[in-house]
Amino acid sequence: MQNLLITGGCGFIGSNFVRFMLGRDDFTGRIINVDCLTYAANPKSLTDIENDFPDRYVFIRADICDGPQMAEIFDRYGVDAICHFAAESHVDRSIVDPGAFIQTNIVGTFNLLELARFHPDRLTLFHHVSTDEVFGSLSAEGYFTETTAYRPNSPYAASKAASDHLVRAYHKTYGLPITISNCSNNYGPYQFPEKLIPLIILNALEGKALPVYGDGKNVRDWLYVTDHCDAIWKIMRDGQRGATYNIGGNTEKPNIEVVETICDILDETAADKDIGPRRELIDFVTDRPGHDRRYAIDATKLKRELGWVPAESFETGIRNTIAWYLDNMQWVQRVQSGEYQTWIKQHYG
Ligand code: NAD
Ligand code: DAU
Asked: Which helix (H) or strand (E) holds 19?
Protein backbone atom coordinates (compact mmCIF):
# COMPACT_ATOMS: atom_id res chain seq x y z
CA MET A 1 0.00 0.00 0.00
CA GLN A 2 2.15 2.85 -1.27
CA ASN A 3 -0.63 5.17 -2.45
CA LEU A 4 -3.51 4.81 -0.03
CA LEU A 5 -6.71 6.67 -0.91
CA ILE A 6 -8.67 7.65 2.19
CA THR A 7 -12.17 8.96 1.58
CA GLY A 8 -13.79 11.21 4.17
CA GLY A 9 -10.44 11.96 5.82
CA CYS A 10 -11.60 15.38 7.06
CA GLY A 11 -14.37 13.87 9.18
CA PHE A 12 -14.17 12.54 12.72
CA ILE A 13 -12.82 9.01 12.29
CA GLY A 14 -11.11 9.67 8.95
CA SER A 15 -8.99 12.52 10.36
CA ASN A 16 -8.02 10.40 13.36
CA PHE A 17 -7.09 7.60 10.96
CA VAL A 18 -4.86 9.84 8.81
CA ARG A 19 -3.05 10.99 11.97
CA PHE A 20 -2.79 7.40 13.25
CA MET A 21 -1.36 6.07 9.98
CA LEU A 22 1.25 8.80 9.53
CA GLY A 23 2.49 8.13 13.06
CA ARG A 24 3.25 4.47 12.38
CA ASP A 25 6.50 2.71 11.48
CA ASP A 26 4.78 -0.09 9.55
CA PHE A 27 3.22 2.25 6.97
CA THR A 28 5.67 4.06 4.72
CA GLY A 29 3.34 5.06 1.89
CA ARG A 30 1.50 8.22 0.90
CA ILE A 31 -2.05 9.16 1.89
CA ILE A 32 -4.37 10.77 -0.63
CA ASN A 33 -7.28 12.21 1.34
CA VAL A 34 -10.41 12.85 -0.73
CA ASP A 35 -13.23 14.69 1.00
CA CYS A 36 -15.93 16.96 -0.43
CA LEU A 37 -16.05 18.96 2.84
CA THR A 38 -19.66 18.68 3.99
CA TYR A 39 -20.83 20.43 7.18
CA ALA A 40 -19.23 17.53 9.14
CA ALA A 41 -15.73 18.05 7.75
CA ASN A 42 -13.05 20.11 9.39
CA PRO A 43 -10.19 20.61 6.94
CA LYS A 44 -8.14 22.40 9.58
CA SER A 45 -8.16 19.32 11.82
CA LEU A 46 -5.20 18.16 9.69
CA THR A 47 -3.23 21.41 9.23
CA ASP A 48 -0.31 20.07 11.31
CA ILE A 49 -0.27 16.88 9.23
CA GLU A 50 -0.15 18.91 6.00
CA ASN A 51 2.87 20.80 7.36
CA ASP A 52 4.65 17.81 8.90
CA PHE A 53 4.23 15.38 5.99
CA PRO A 54 4.38 17.42 2.76
CA ASP A 55 5.62 14.38 0.77
CA ARG A 56 3.33 11.80 2.31
CA TYR A 57 -0.01 13.59 2.64
CA VAL A 58 -2.17 15.11 -0.10
CA PHE A 59 -5.65 16.57 0.32
CA ILE A 60 -8.05 16.87 -2.60
CA ARG A 61 -11.51 18.32 -2.36
CA ALA A 62 -13.70 15.99 -4.41
CA ASP A 63 -17.05 14.24 -4.23
CA ILE A 64 -16.90 10.44 -4.33
CA CYS A 65 -20.10 10.56 -6.40
CA ASP A 66 -18.20 12.32 -9.20
CA GLY A 67 -16.98 9.34 -11.25
CA PRO A 68 -14.74 11.19 -13.76
CA GLN A 69 -13.00 13.25 -11.06
CA MET A 70 -12.41 10.18 -8.91
CA ALA A 71 -11.01 8.30 -11.93
CA GLU A 72 -8.64 11.19 -12.63
CA ILE A 73 -7.42 11.19 -8.99
CA PHE A 74 -7.08 7.42 -9.06
CA ASP A 75 -4.76 7.57 -12.08
CA ARG A 76 -2.87 10.73 -11.16
CA TYR A 77 -1.82 9.33 -7.77
CA GLY A 78 -1.45 5.67 -8.77
CA VAL A 79 -3.86 4.62 -6.02
CA ASP A 80 -3.18 1.01 -4.98
CA ALA A 81 -5.42 0.72 -1.89
CA ILE A 82 -8.60 2.38 -0.60
CA CYS A 83 -9.90 2.89 2.91
CA HIS A 84 -13.44 4.19 2.50
CA PHE A 85 -14.83 6.33 5.34
CA ALA A 86 -16.78 9.01 3.42
CA ALA A 87 -20.44 8.96 4.36
CA GLU A 88 -23.36 10.89 5.69
CA SER A 89 -23.17 9.57 9.24
CA HIS A 90 -25.83 11.09 11.50
CA VAL A 91 -28.97 9.03 12.12
CA ASP A 92 -31.18 12.03 13.05
CA ARG A 93 -30.32 13.81 9.80
CA SER A 94 -31.13 10.65 7.84
CA ILE A 95 -34.61 10.66 9.36
CA VAL A 96 -35.26 14.27 8.34
CA ASP A 97 -33.57 14.18 4.92
CA PRO A 98 -32.51 10.73 3.65
CA GLY A 99 -31.60 11.77 0.07
CA ALA A 100 -27.96 12.67 0.72
CA PHE A 101 -27.50 9.33 2.52
CA ILE A 102 -28.66 7.36 -0.49
CA GLN A 103 -26.43 9.42 -2.78
CA THR A 104 -23.15 9.38 -0.84
CA ASN A 105 -23.42 6.12 1.05
CA ILE A 106 -24.80 3.98 -1.77
CA VAL A 107 -24.05 5.74 -5.09
CA GLY A 108 -20.69 7.06 -3.84
CA THR A 109 -19.60 3.61 -2.70
CA PHE A 110 -20.75 2.12 -6.02
CA ASN A 111 -18.64 4.70 -7.91
CA LEU A 112 -15.52 3.75 -5.95
CA LEU A 113 -16.18 0.05 -6.47
CA GLU A 114 -16.49 0.60 -10.22
CA LEU A 115 -13.14 2.40 -10.23
CA ALA A 116 -11.61 -0.48 -8.31
CA ARG A 117 -13.18 -3.03 -10.67
CA PHE A 118 -11.39 -1.49 -13.66
CA HIS A 119 -7.96 -1.49 -11.98
CA PRO A 120 -7.59 -5.16 -10.99
CA ASP A 121 -3.84 -5.20 -11.63
CA ARG A 122 -3.15 -2.25 -9.37
CA LEU A 123 -5.63 -2.34 -6.48
CA THR A 124 -4.47 -4.49 -3.56
CA LEU A 125 -7.32 -3.67 -1.16
CA PHE A 126 -10.68 -1.95 -0.85
CA HIS A 127 -11.47 -1.58 2.86
CA HIS A 128 -15.03 -0.50 3.62
CA VAL A 129 -15.69 1.17 6.98
CA SER A 130 -19.19 0.32 8.18
CA THR A 131 -21.36 0.25 11.26
CA ASP A 132 -23.04 -2.13 13.68
CA GLU A 133 -26.34 -0.32 12.90
CA VAL A 134 -26.78 -2.56 9.84
CA PHE A 135 -27.77 -5.37 12.24
CA GLY A 136 -30.72 -3.48 13.75
CA SER A 137 -31.58 -3.62 17.43
CA LEU A 138 -30.88 -6.15 20.19
CA SER A 139 -33.07 -6.94 23.19
CA ALA A 140 -31.46 -7.19 26.63
CA GLU A 141 -29.52 -10.36 25.68
CA GLY A 142 -27.08 -11.33 22.92
CA TYR A 143 -24.46 -9.76 20.69
CA PHE A 144 -23.97 -8.91 17.03
CA THR A 145 -21.56 -11.33 15.34
CA GLU A 146 -20.31 -11.37 11.75
CA THR A 147 -23.13 -13.81 10.87
CA THR A 148 -25.99 -11.80 12.39
CA ALA A 149 -28.69 -11.08 9.77
CA TYR A 150 -28.95 -7.50 8.50
CA ARG A 151 -32.06 -5.65 9.78
CA PRO A 152 -31.30 -1.92 9.40
CA ASN A 153 -33.91 0.40 10.94
CA SER A 154 -32.97 3.97 9.99
CA PRO A 155 -32.37 5.38 6.49
CA TYR A 156 -28.70 5.81 7.54
CA ALA A 157 -28.40 2.17 8.61
CA ALA A 158 -30.19 0.98 5.45
CA SER A 159 -27.85 3.01 3.24
CA LYS A 160 -24.79 1.55 5.00
CA ALA A 161 -26.27 -1.95 4.71
CA ALA A 162 -26.74 -1.44 0.96
CA SER A 163 -23.12 -0.31 0.62
CA ASP A 164 -21.88 -3.34 2.59
CA HIS A 165 -23.81 -5.63 0.24
CA LEU A 166 -22.32 -3.93 -2.82
CA VAL A 167 -18.78 -4.30 -1.48
CA ARG A 168 -19.33 -7.96 -0.70
CA ALA A 169 -20.91 -8.53 -4.13
CA TYR A 170 -17.90 -6.99 -5.91
CA HIS A 171 -15.69 -9.47 -4.10
CA LYS A 172 -17.86 -12.47 -4.98
CA THR A 173 -18.56 -11.43 -8.57
CA TYR A 174 -15.37 -9.68 -9.68
CA GLY A 175 -12.86 -11.02 -7.15
CA LEU A 176 -12.14 -7.54 -5.78
CA PRO A 177 -9.80 -7.80 -2.74
CA ILE A 178 -12.05 -6.34 -0.05
CA THR A 179 -12.42 -6.25 3.71
CA ILE A 180 -15.37 -4.81 5.65
CA SER A 181 -15.52 -3.67 9.27
CA ASN A 182 -18.72 -3.08 11.26
CA CYS A 183 -17.97 -0.95 14.29
CA SER A 184 -19.90 0.26 17.32
CA ASN A 185 -20.22 3.90 18.54
CA ASN A 186 -16.97 5.88 18.45
CA TYR A 187 -16.03 8.84 20.62
CA GLY A 188 -12.90 10.98 21.01
CA PRO A 189 -11.25 14.12 19.59
CA TYR A 190 -12.57 15.90 16.47
CA GLN A 191 -16.14 14.53 16.60
CA PHE A 192 -18.73 16.94 15.21
CA PRO A 193 -20.90 18.17 18.11
CA GLU A 194 -24.19 16.80 16.81
CA LYS A 195 -23.38 13.31 18.16
CA LEU A 196 -24.29 12.47 21.77
CA ILE A 197 -20.93 12.74 23.56
CA PRO A 198 -19.55 16.02 22.14
CA LEU A 199 -23.03 17.59 22.19
CA ILE A 200 -23.44 16.80 25.89
CA ILE A 201 -19.89 17.93 26.77
CA LEU A 202 -20.36 21.30 25.08
CA ASN A 203 -23.92 21.92 26.32
CA ALA A 204 -22.96 20.95 29.86
CA LEU A 205 -19.94 23.22 29.76
CA GLU A 206 -22.18 26.17 28.88
CA GLY A 207 -24.97 25.23 31.30
CA LYS A 208 -27.43 24.44 28.48
CA ALA A 209 -30.13 21.72 28.55
CA LEU A 210 -28.87 18.16 27.95
CA PRO A 211 -31.35 16.41 25.61
CA VAL A 212 -31.77 12.70 26.34
CA TYR A 213 -34.08 10.83 23.96
CA GLY A 214 -36.94 8.75 25.41
CA ASP A 215 -36.20 7.12 28.76
CA GLY A 216 -32.41 7.34 28.33
CA LYS A 217 -32.07 3.55 28.64
CA ASN A 218 -31.03 2.85 25.05
CA VAL A 219 -27.67 1.11 25.14
CA ARG A 220 -24.63 1.79 22.95
CA ASP A 221 -21.25 -0.01 22.96
CA TRP A 222 -18.63 2.78 23.10
CA LEU A 223 -15.18 2.57 21.51
CA TYR A 224 -12.42 5.17 21.66
CA VAL A 225 -11.64 6.34 18.14
CA THR A 226 -7.93 5.38 18.06
CA ASP A 227 -8.88 1.82 19.02
CA HIS A 228 -11.12 1.80 15.95
CA CYS A 229 -8.22 3.10 13.82
CA ASP A 230 -5.95 0.39 15.16
CA ALA A 231 -8.53 -2.30 14.38
CA ILE A 232 -9.02 -1.01 10.82
CA TRP A 233 -5.28 -1.03 10.16
CA LYS A 234 -4.90 -4.57 11.53
CA ILE A 235 -7.72 -5.72 9.24
CA MET A 236 -6.25 -3.91 6.23
CA ARG A 237 -2.81 -5.38 6.86
CA ASP A 238 -3.59 -8.94 7.93
CA GLY A 239 -7.33 -9.54 7.55
CA GLN A 240 -8.64 -12.25 5.24
CA ARG A 241 -9.62 -10.81 1.87
CA GLY A 242 -13.38 -11.06 1.36
CA ALA A 243 -14.03 -11.14 5.12
CA THR A 244 -16.06 -9.01 7.49
CA TYR A 245 -14.92 -8.11 11.02
CA ASN A 246 -16.97 -6.70 13.89
CA ILE A 247 -15.25 -4.06 16.05
CA GLY A 248 -16.54 -3.09 19.49
CA GLY A 249 -15.35 -1.85 22.85
CA ASN A 250 -17.22 -4.33 25.06
CA THR A 251 -18.36 -1.17 26.84
CA GLU A 252 -22.15 -1.19 26.89
CA LYS A 253 -23.70 1.82 28.56
CA PRO A 254 -27.23 3.23 28.75
CA ASN A 255 -27.26 6.78 27.37
CA ILE A 256 -28.30 8.27 30.69
CA GLU A 257 -25.21 6.80 32.35
CA VAL A 258 -22.95 8.35 29.69
CA VAL A 259 -24.61 11.74 30.18
CA GLU A 260 -24.38 11.56 33.98
CA THR A 261 -20.70 10.57 33.78
CA ILE A 262 -19.94 13.63 31.62
CA CYS A 263 -21.87 15.85 34.07
CA ASP A 264 -19.90 14.52 37.04
CA ILE A 265 -16.49 14.87 35.35
CA LEU A 266 -17.27 18.44 34.30
CA ASP A 267 -18.51 19.32 37.81
CA GLU A 268 -15.12 18.10 39.03
CA THR A 269 -12.88 19.64 36.35
CA ALA A 270 -14.83 22.75 35.30
CA ALA A 271 -16.99 23.61 38.32
CA ASP A 272 -19.11 26.72 37.79
CA LYS A 273 -21.26 28.09 40.61
CA ASP A 274 -23.64 29.76 38.15
CA ILE A 275 -24.33 26.38 36.53
CA GLY A 276 -24.44 24.18 39.65
CA PRO A 277 -24.67 20.36 39.52
CA ARG A 278 -24.90 19.56 35.84
CA ARG A 279 -27.13 16.48 36.23
CA GLU A 280 -29.92 19.04 36.84
CA LEU A 281 -29.57 20.13 33.20
CA ILE A 282 -30.73 16.71 31.90
CA ASP A 283 -33.89 17.04 29.81
CA PHE A 284 -35.77 13.92 28.69
CA VAL A 285 -37.08 14.80 25.21
CA THR A 286 -39.21 13.10 22.56
CA ASP A 287 -37.66 9.85 21.39
CA ARG A 288 -35.95 9.36 18.00
CA PRO A 289 -38.36 7.59 15.59
CA GLY A 290 -37.38 3.93 15.19
CA HIS A 291 -34.75 4.36 17.92
CA ASP A 292 -32.71 1.13 18.20
CA ARG A 293 -32.78 -0.09 21.79
CA ARG A 294 -29.45 -1.81 22.21
CA TYR A 295 -26.23 -2.40 20.28
CA ALA A 296 -23.51 -4.78 21.53
CA ILE A 297 -20.66 -6.22 19.52
CA ASP A 298 -19.00 -9.59 19.80
CA ALA A 299 -15.45 -8.83 18.58
CA THR A 300 -14.10 -12.35 19.24
CA LYS A 301 -13.16 -12.95 15.60
CA LEU A 302 -10.98 -9.83 15.49
CA LYS A 303 -9.26 -10.80 18.72
CA ARG A 304 -8.77 -14.44 17.70
CA GLU A 305 -7.54 -13.84 14.14
CA LEU A 306 -5.69 -10.54 14.46
CA GLY A 307 -4.98 -10.16 18.18
CA TRP A 308 -6.88 -6.87 18.47
CA VAL A 309 -8.13 -5.66 21.83
CA PRO A 310 -9.00 -2.06 22.70
CA ALA A 311 -6.33 -0.15 24.63
CA GLU A 312 -8.60 2.50 26.12
CA SER A 313 -11.24 1.95 28.83
CA PHE A 314 -14.36 4.12 28.87
CA GLU A 315 -13.20 5.69 32.14
CA THR A 316 -9.91 6.92 30.62
CA GLY A 317 -11.32 7.54 27.13
CA ILE A 318 -14.12 9.81 28.29
CA ARG A 319 -11.73 11.85 30.44
CA ASN A 320 -9.32 12.23 27.49
CA THR A 321 -12.21 13.29 25.28
CA ILE A 322 -13.52 15.90 27.71
CA ALA A 323 -9.99 17.23 28.22
CA TRP A 324 -9.51 17.44 24.44
CA TYR A 325 -12.67 19.54 23.98
CA LEU A 326 -11.70 21.84 26.89
CA ASP A 327 -8.24 22.32 25.35
CA ASN A 328 -9.56 22.90 21.82
CA MET A 329 -12.27 25.50 22.26
CA GLN A 330 -11.04 27.35 19.18
CA TRP A 331 -11.78 24.27 17.05
CA VAL A 332 -15.19 24.03 18.73
CA GLN A 333 -15.96 27.70 18.22
CA ARG A 334 -15.05 27.49 14.54
CA VAL A 335 -17.21 24.40 14.05
CA GLN A 336 -20.18 25.85 15.92
CA SER A 337 -20.04 29.28 14.29
CA GLY A 338 -19.77 27.88 10.76
CA GLU A 339 -16.41 29.67 10.37
CA TYR A 340 -14.97 26.60 8.62
CA GLN A 341 -17.70 26.79 6.01
CA THR A 342 -16.74 30.41 5.26
CA TRP A 343 -13.08 29.36 5.04
CA ILE A 344 -14.01 26.49 2.68
CA LYS A 345 -15.96 28.89 0.42
CA GLN A 346 -13.01 31.31 0.30
CA HIS A 347 -10.52 28.56 -0.53
CA TYR A 348 -12.53 26.34 -2.81
CA GLY A 349 -15.37 28.53 -4.07
P1 NAD B 1 -18.27 12.18 9.75
O2 NAD B 1 -19.65 12.60 9.41
O3 NAD B 1 -17.59 12.82 10.90
O4 NAD B 1 -17.30 12.35 8.48
C5 NAD B 1 -17.71 11.98 7.20
C6 NAD B 1 -16.75 12.65 6.22
O7 NAD B 1 -17.12 12.22 4.88
C8 NAD B 1 -16.82 14.18 6.22
O9 NAD B 1 -15.53 14.73 6.26
C10 NAD B 1 -17.54 14.52 4.93
O11 NAD B 1 -17.17 15.77 4.38
C12 NAD B 1 -17.12 13.35 4.05
N13 NAD B 1 -18.07 13.14 2.94
C14 NAD B 1 -19.42 13.04 3.05
N15 NAD B 1 -19.96 12.90 1.82
C16 NAD B 1 -18.93 12.86 0.94
C17 NAD B 1 -18.84 12.73 -0.47
N18 NAD B 1 -19.94 12.58 -1.22
N19 NAD B 1 -17.61 12.76 -1.04
C20 NAD B 1 -16.49 12.94 -0.30
N21 NAD B 1 -16.52 13.09 1.04
C22 NAD B 1 -17.72 13.04 1.65
O23 NAD B 1 -18.36 10.61 9.95
P24 NAD B 1 -17.55 9.64 10.95
O25 NAD B 1 -18.28 9.56 12.23
O26 NAD B 1 -16.14 10.00 10.90
O27 NAD B 1 -17.77 8.25 10.18
C28 NAD B 1 -16.85 7.81 9.17
C29 NAD B 1 -17.29 6.44 8.67
O30 NAD B 1 -17.32 5.53 9.77
C31 NAD B 1 -18.69 6.42 8.08
O32 NAD B 1 -18.67 5.57 6.96
C33 NAD B 1 -19.57 5.84 9.19
O34 NAD B 1 -20.66 5.15 8.65
C35 NAD B 1 -18.59 4.90 9.85
N36 NAD B 1 -18.84 4.62 11.28
C37 NAD B 1 -18.97 5.65 12.16
C38 NAD B 1 -19.13 5.36 13.52
C39 NAD B 1 -19.27 6.46 14.55
O40 NAD B 1 -19.55 6.16 15.72
N41 NAD B 1 -19.05 7.72 14.21
C42 NAD B 1 -19.16 4.03 13.95
C43 NAD B 1 -19.05 3.00 12.99
C44 NAD B 1 -18.86 3.32 11.66
O1 DAU C 1 -23.27 2.42 16.21
C2 DAU C 1 -22.47 3.10 15.30
C3 DAU C 1 -23.13 4.42 14.92
O4 DAU C 1 -23.00 5.28 16.04
C5 DAU C 1 -22.51 5.06 13.68
O6 DAU C 1 -22.72 4.23 12.58
C7 DAU C 1 -23.13 6.44 13.42
O8 DAU C 1 -22.47 7.07 12.34
C9 DAU C 1 -22.94 7.28 14.67
O10 DAU C 1 -23.57 8.54 14.50
C11 DAU C 1 -23.54 6.57 15.89
O12 DAU C 1 -24.98 6.49 15.78
P13 DAU C 1 -25.92 6.75 17.05
O14 DAU C 1 -27.26 7.14 16.57
O15 DAU C 1 -25.84 5.62 18.00
O16 DAU C 1 -25.12 8.02 17.71
P17 DAU C 1 -25.63 9.37 18.35
O18 DAU C 1 -24.44 10.00 18.99
O19 DAU C 1 -26.46 10.18 17.43
O20 DAU C 1 -26.59 8.84 19.52
C21 DAU C 1 -26.12 7.97 20.54
C22 DAU C 1 -27.30 7.62 21.43
O23 DAU C 1 -27.70 8.80 22.15
C24 DAU C 1 -28.53 7.17 20.66
O25 DAU C 1 -29.19 6.17 21.42
C26 DAU C 1 -29.40 8.42 20.57
C27 DAU C 1 -29.06 9.16 21.85
N28 DAU C 1 -29.09 10.63 21.78
C29 DAU C 1 -28.44 11.25 20.76
C30 DAU C 1 -28.42 12.64 20.67
C31 DAU C 1 -27.72 13.32 19.52
C32 DAU C 1 -29.73 11.36 22.78
O33 DAU C 1 -30.31 10.77 23.71
N34 DAU C 1 -29.71 12.72 22.69
C35 DAU C 1 -29.10 13.39 21.67
O36 DAU C 1 -29.15 14.65 21.65
From this structure: helix 12-22
Q: Tell me, rounded to whole angstroms, the distance of Cα 155 from its chain centroid.
A: 17
Whole-model pTM?
Answer: 0.98
What is the three-class DSSP state of 299? coil
pLDDT tens for 117-170 read 998 889 999 999 999 999 999 999 999 999 999 999 999 999 999 999 999 999
Residue of minimum CA distance from atom 23 in ligand 2: 196
**Is 244 contained in some domain?**
yes
CA-nearest of 265, 263, 303 to 283 is: 263
Q: Is 144 helix (H, G, I), strand (E, B) or coil?
A: strand
Q: What is the pLDDT of residue 349?
A: 66
Residue 289: which residues within 8 A CB-CB, separation 6 or more?
95
Pocket residues: Cβ below 6 A from ligand 2 = 89-91, 131-133, 184-185, 195-196, 199, 211-213, 218, 220, 255, 288, 295
Please tell me which residue in 35, 133, 292, 312 is annotated as part of the active site.
Answer: 133
**Hey, what amino acid is at 107?**
V
In a domain, 326, yes or no: no
The CATH code of the domain that includes 236 is: 3.40.50.720
Name the phi and psi angles at 109, rounded to 5. Answer: -65, -40
> Ligand 1 centre from 275 Cα, in Å?
34
User: What separation in angstroms does the CA of 192 have from each of 125, 195, 265?
Assistant: 29, 7, 20
Domain that holds residue 130: 3-187+224-249+295-311
Report d(CA 294, CA 310) in Å as an integer: 20
Where helices occur in 53-136 by DSSP H, the ranges are 67-76, 91-96, 99-101, 109-117
The ligand whose atoms approach the alpha carbon of 202 most closely is: 2
Show the low-confidence residues of the chain (pLDDT under 70).
349
168 with 178: CB under 8 angstroms?
A: yes
Under DSSP, the state recorded for 220 is E
